[in-house]
Amino acid sequence: MRPASAPPLPMLTIAAAAVSPYPACLRANACHFAALARRGLAASLSRMARRIDTYLQALLPSDKFAFYESCRDFSDAEIAPHLLDWERQHVLVPDSCIEAMGQLGLFGLPIQEQYGGQGGDHTDLVLMGLALAYHSQSVAITPGAAVSLGAKPLQLCGTEAQKKAHLPDLAAGKRMFVFGLSEPGRGSDAANPEVTAVKKGDRWVIRGEKCWSTNARWASHIVVHALTDQNGKNGRRSTCFIVPMDAKGVHYQEMKGKKVWEQSSTGSVMFDNVEVPHDAILGAENDGFKVMVTTLNGGRLFIAGLALGSLAFALDKCRVYAEERIQFDNQPIGRFQRVQDVIVDMDIALERNLTWLMHCCKLFEAGTLSREQAAKVKVDCSRVASDLLVSAMEICGGVSCFDEFGLIRHHNDLFVTRVGEGSNFALKDLIVRPLRQA
Ligand SMILES: Cc1cc2nc3c(=O)[nH]c(=O)nc-3n(C[C@H](O)[C@H](O)[C@H](O)COP(=O)(O)OP(=O)(O)OC[C@H]3O[C@@H](n4cnc5c(N)ncnc54)[C@H](O)[C@@H]3O)c2cc1C
After folding, report:
1. Whole-number average pLDDT of the chain
2. Rounded Cα distance, 225 and 284, in Å
3. Which residue's C-alpha comes closest to atom 40 of ligand 1?
4. How far is the CA of 187 from the centre of ligand 1 (A)?
5. Which fold has domain 178-286?
6. What is the domain partition of the chain in residue ranges?
7. Ligand 1 pocket test: which of 419, 424, 432 has the largest number of ligand atoms within 8 Å of its C-beta?
8. N or C: which end of the chain has fewer CB within 10 A?
C-alpha cells in the first residue's frame, strides 16, 4: 500500500503520453495506446466500406441510397472532424453547422415543396438520422427534432394559414419549433399535463413549465400541450398551442449538466401567464393529446434510426480494431471466438433491425404504420444497440474509455434512445395491448 505522504500518481492520458513519467515499459504502452486511438479514429473517418452502406444499398431504391450517401458525406466532412473540439469545449452544435445543415435542406426534408421544403418523405428523414448519427446523435437530433417533432405537428394538424405562416421558414432552418410535451411532473404520463391554458375572452392564458425541450436554445416557437378541460375524458382534456418563444412571460433556460446528447440543446421553458390568441390552437380544442401522439409515431422511427447509426459506427470500429490489436502469441484479437461473437451479433442486429426499420418506413409512407409497430421498432433498436455497445466497448478494452475513440459517446447517447419519445418500459404498455386481446 502506498504511504499517505507519497506524491499523487500521475494520470495516464493520451495527451500526456509523450511526456509520461511512467517507466519505459508503461510509456511504450501509452504511446501504443495513443497511436491506436488515433488510428482507430482515422479508420472510422476514412472511406472504409461501412456495413451499414452495404445493407442500405440492398434495401433502398437508388435515389434514396444516393440521398443517404450525400448525408453521409456531409457528416464525414462537416461533423466528424469537429466533434472532439465541440465535446471538449462543451459547446452546443455551432451556428455555422446549423446553417450548413439548413443550406443542405435538412430542415425541410419532408416538408412539401409548395411550402418551401424538399418534398421528400419520412424515410429521407430517417436516412439523414442514420447518416449523421454514425458520428453524432447530438448533431443528428438537431434537424431531426426540428422536423419530426417541431414541424411535423404543424404539417399534420395545422390550418392552411398556420402552414403558410411557418413552414417556409421552418424548411429553410430560419425558424425552429420545439415539442412541448414533457414536464417536470409529467413524463410518461403525458396525457394529463400540469401546464394549464384558461380561456379569457378571445384569448388563452398559459401557466406552468415544460422541460426536456430539444432545440429550445434555437427555438422561435414552442408547441405547448396544455390542460384545457380537466373534466374531459382521458385523452380529451388537453389542447396544443403555438407559442412564440419571445412572447411576454415565456422564460427559457438550458438544462445544464446533461452528459448525453451533449451538443444538443435541452431546455426548460416557463410560462408565466402567457397570453395567446385563439388561432394559436394547433389541431382541435381538447384534442391536443392526439396531435402529440400522432407526431410521436414518426419520431420513434427517427429515434430507432439514431440507435442504428450508433450501432453501425460501433460495428465498424470494432471490426477494424479487432484486426489491429495484437495479444497472445502475436494474434489479432479478432481471431478469438468470443470477440468474433460480439462482432457477429452486432452485424446480425444491424442488418435485421435496418430491414425492419425500412419496412416500418414503408408502412408509415402508406399511412398504415400502427402505434404498436412504431413503438416496437424503437424499443428493440434502442435496447439491442445499447446492450451491444457495452459488449463492443468490452472487446476494445481500455481504449474504449477515451472520447477520441468514439464508443463512449455512442454508449452515452444510446441511453437517450431508450427513454426519449416514450421510455421503453412505458411503451411496452402499449405493445402488450393487442397481446391481451383474446
Ligand atoms: C435528452 C432528452 C431529450 C428530450 N427531448 C424532449 C422533447 O423535445 N420534448 C418533450 O416533450 N420531451 C422530451 N424528452 C422527454 C422524454 O420524452 C421523457 O424523458 C420520457 O417520456 C420519459 O419521461 P421521464 O423521463 O419523466 O420518466 P418517467 O415518466 O418518470 O418514468 C421513469 C421510468 O419509470 C418507468 N415507467 C414509467 N411509466 C411506466 C409505465 N406506464 N409502465 C412501465 N414503466 C413505466 C420507466 O422505466 C421509465 O423509464 C427528452 C428527454 C431526454 C432525456
Report:
1. 90
2. 12
3. 426
4. 5
5. Butyryl-CoA Dehydrogenase, subunit A; domain 2 (2.40.110)
6. 23-174, 178-286, 293-436
7. 419
8. C
Atom of ligand 1 nearest to the CA of 260: 1
Out of 13-22, 23-32, 290-299, pick the least confident. 13-22
Q: Give distance in angstroms: CA of 298 to centre of ligand 1.
A: 17
Pocket test for ligand 1, best of 142, 149, 212, 295 (most atoms within 8 A of CB): 212
Write the class of the CATH domain 293-436: mainly alpha
Catalytic residue list contains 78? no
Q: What is the pLDDT of residue 196?
A: 98
Q: What is the pTM of this model?
A: 0.90
Question: For residue range 115-173, what is the model confidence (pLDDT) as tens digits?
Answer: 999 999 999 999 999 999 999 999 999 999 999 999 999 999 999 999 999 999 999 99
pLDDT on residue 183: 97
141-to-129, 148, 287 alpha-carbon distances in Å: 7, 9, 27
Please indicate whether residue 145, judged by its CB atom, sits closer than 6 Å to ligand 1: yes
> What values do phi and psi take at 151, rounded to 5?
-80, -25
Could you name the CATH architecture of 23-174? Orthogonal Bundle (1.10)
